[in-house]
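ugh ok fine here u go
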Amino acid sequence: MKRLLTMMAVFGMLFAFTVLPDVSANTDTVPGGPSTDGNTNINSIITYDEMIKKLETIEATSKGNVEVFTLDDYGKSEQGNSIYVAKAGDGDKKIWVQAQIHGDEKLTTEAALQMLKTFASNGSPDVKTILEEATIYVIPMYNPDGSILNTRGTYLENEDRYLDLNRDWATDKFEAKESRIVYEYWTDLKPDFAIDLHHQGFKTVYGTNESTSFSLGISLAPDGPTLPDIKDGLYNTVTKQMQAYVYDSMIDYGYTHIDQYQVCGGDEKYFIDIRGGVVSAMMLGTNYNNLNDDGHSNPAIFFETKGNTREGNLGQKSNGYLTKQNYQALKALMYGIATEEIYDVDPERWNDIPAYPSAGYLTDYETSGY
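structure:
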């Protein structure tokens, strides 16, 4: 196993939070949501400028329920774009939500905006509970430059290269302006929980021919090399409970086919244990440039929706549905955090979420000693 883990470290940087196409997928696969037919119409997907307009509309019609602001006091993106944040609620529990850290994972922004629109105008009991018990901080487009360019990463003009922002929260990195801006805001805010929204490639749910539409992930593998040693195993337990809570709330939702997030290499599947990822750094309490000298940390999980615009495998027929499943999962988890129902979940319920037999861990660090 030690040899295997060391081999995985060599390839870790290539995978980040993206799943390669599953070789087990075939033409008989049942789609998780309407078929995309491999088509993407970028014109139908929200742009950076459109996001700003929607945020302004949401704030204006929210009667004070939603506040929108930028992180300009911390800086702007590599290309000089503002990073926007929306705040809702006034409860004690602070929940951080970030979307589109990868610029070609665009439906996550749509889901975040739908959630904010709900906070602005919906008076249902569950929404009232969320806003009374929690304060939500949403970054609907972490990577505005990548979104505008329709690229996964941001572009470092001085170095003429692209950088994956989701691999930049390591103490020896923080190369991009976006990383330093958002990190400093995180250290000032000190949230209690974080939810990260992503897209992934096509795969099938283990033991079925169902195309995975939605995966639940923890960037530091549960029961893996890192997470059990953080906070005496607290985050190892809580992140499992968070995932299981979402799973139980979503398993009967339409065509949603849910599994655990894994990456694949050929026929083998691996769990990730990525320490340079943003939500991993949050759980590790990463202290960059002495900005987090009190060691703040928080549990975090991520959602993965199938398809992305870079590879041309999102289609208009499925966009609404795929966005809706993110919205439903977000709302459910926020309610579970607000009411503390997540703590009532048996953490071993996490093991009931479908997953392929694992061949080990995919890492971005030296694994010697594990």
